[in-house]
Design brief:
Layout: H1 2-17, H2 19-30, H3 36-43, H4 53-82, H5 95-109, H6 116-152
Helix pairs in contact: 1-2, 3-6, 4-5, 4-6
């Protein structure tokens, strides 16, 4: 566990030094769009020309298939990120399990959403929440390390 934690710290420090590498790393990990605008541009429904109902349905299915891949990628990222939350809450349940249960519930509630714009908003919000949680965790760990080094030396 400490080896994974040290590896995580090294990765977070490298990303903090060079913010542009974060975008390249995310692109490599998820093979997705570079930024929110590109994600929205790629998935939002654009009114170009009049299509018949069958063509419109086919186009909508393709967009939802793409957003499905993004949603599954987000879910996997949440599960990966939850591994770092190993302390119990006030009830004695590990935060890892709480996060996983809440993520599962959120995804189940949005399972039958068919509006691509709403799906994209949910995905973007989820990505931002995961990134924010990991950033806060990394900052707290960095503060703890600095505190231990300062108090011990």
């Amino acid at each position: 566990m400490t080896g994974k934690l040290q590896l995580w710290r090294c990765i977070r420090q490298q990303v903090a030094v060079n913010r542009t590498s974060l975008f390249h790393m995310e692109r490599f990990l998820h093979d997705g769009p570079d930024n929110v605008e590109e994600l929205l541009d790629r998935h939002l429904v654009k009114k170009e020309k009049s299509l018949d109902d069958d063509e419109e349905e086919l186009l909508n299915r393709r967009k939802l298939t793409s957003t499905r891949r993004e949603a599954l990628s987000l879910y996997r990222d949440i599960l990966r990120a939850s591994r770092f939350f190993m302390w119990p809450d006030s009830r004695g349940v590990l935060w890892r399990d709480v996060l996983r249960d809440n993520a599962r519930k959120e995804f189940e509630e949005a399972k039958f959403e068919t509006d691509p714009e709403i799906v994209i908003k949910l995905i973007v919000g989820g990505r931002e929440a995961v990134q924010s949680a990991l950033d806060k965790l990394a900052n707290k760990q960095r503060e703890q390390i600095d505190k231990e080094r300062g108090g011990g030396g």
